[in-house]
Amino acid sequence: MTFAALAAGRCLPAKLVCLLGMNDSAYPRADSRHGFDLIAQYPRVSDRRQREEDRQVFLDAMLCARQQLYISYTGRDIRDDRSKPPSTLISELFDYIDRTSQPQANMSKTSSVITIQHPMQAFSEQYFQDNATQLFSYARELVRSGDVVVPGPGALVDVPLTRTETESEITLENLVQFFTHPVRVLLRDVLDIRLESADVLLQTREPVELDYYTRMTVREIMLAEKQRGAAFEAVVDQLRAGGKVPMGAVGFRALEFEWYKIAPLYDRLLSAGFSAEGEVIELVLDVAGTRLTGSVSPLTTNGLVHCSVMDLTARDRIRLWVSHLALCASDTSYTRSSQVFGPDQAESFDVIGEPHTLLADLIAVYQEGLTRPLPFFPRSAWEYVSTSGDPAKAAARIWAGNEYAWGESDDAYNQLAFRDSGIEILEGEFEQLASRILGPLQANRVVIR
Question: Which part of the chain has CATH 3.40.50.300?
């Protein structure tokens, strides 16, 4: 989508061209010249004329429309609601259409058929009446209660997408990315819908606290430096030099807290012999006719070891679980045991009896998830299978979130894919998928305090 002023050289061919604000006094523009302009005092035949140039630009813009042309203008006065004419160019266009076309039955002019008159206010009842086929609105908050029933938006994908062929080769990373956010993979990789917004504005104020991602970066730096034997004061100087932490006593106390939080993780990794430069093995597995490839690392004498500088989440567990299943399904000589360490706790998986069966089931869900949105939300699903209380209430609490914690219902991809659903999305298929995908993970998980 390209926005540009209506000027010479700006018009490019497009399927849809929209001309906005074509009011009588706005376009074509009037010639405005200064009193000392000698060209205005002594005009010649070849002099530029603003109105004539605007007429040519308008014609160029119309010719650039390959399929549709949309023109809007203010047709009513905002004070007394009297009729206002459009730009003279639009009036000439209407005259040409009426002269060269046959009007429809019960219509005096063809231009009246293609012109839609919108009400002055967005909450007008005309937008929500069934007989007004050309007027519609998605703003359900503007409807007075009990007046009319506005149908909600339909499902994004009504029927499963038809795929020409099923993927014969899948990487472990693609499998992990899918199960950490199935809907995002479908919309972004299959439908080419990207909802991420890049924050290009630079901060104009110094930070006074550490946000989530800054805390993660700080902890990663602290853990790496701590493993090299660096002192706390040296790490503080390094982080302050980067400009990502608050200055003064506030920043020092925040870094002290993060250093304290990272200490249990450092001790656990030290006892497990963890090394970020551990062994890396490439796996090629045949799982139910599908070629599963990827690398597993880092491998130590105790098996596969992952770590997270933040408290363990469903994403960390899923990543380790998929890698662990692939390790157990391979014929490698490494120890088929996997561990994941976090500041809060450590967890491990031992040898799995039938890893091929579990991987085949995950691949089947993956193939289905590339054809339709699956109601599988990792954080909510993990609460559903791991809670000791009511699983439905636990999942609903994570899904809805609160003023202090972000909920999965706030995710832009989930909102678009399940725009026709409410909290009932956590019933039925969600419960089945949660038990099917994360049930075996929870059953084989061993918590190490």
Answer: 14-115
SS3 for 393-404 is HHHHHHHHCCCC
Residue 304 has pLDDT above 60, yes or no: yes
Question: Is residue 270 helix, strand or coil?
Answer: helix
User: How far out from the chain centre does Cα 376 lie?
Assistant: 16
For residues 225 and 9, the model is more confident at: 225
pLDDT tens-digit series, residues 247-292: 888 888 989 999 999 999 998 888 877 766 778 889 999 988 899 9
Superfamily per CATH, domain 14-115? P-loop containing nucleotide triphosphate hydrolases (3.40.50.300)
298 prior amide bond cis, ω within 30: yes
CA distance 93 to 430: 55
Token pair, residue 268, equals 């656990």
SS3 category, 207: coil
Entry pTM: 0.70
Q: Per CATH, which fold does 212-271 belong to?
A: Arc Repressor Mutant, subunit A (1.10.10)
Looking at the chain, which residues constitute the CATH 1.10.10 domain(s)? 212-271
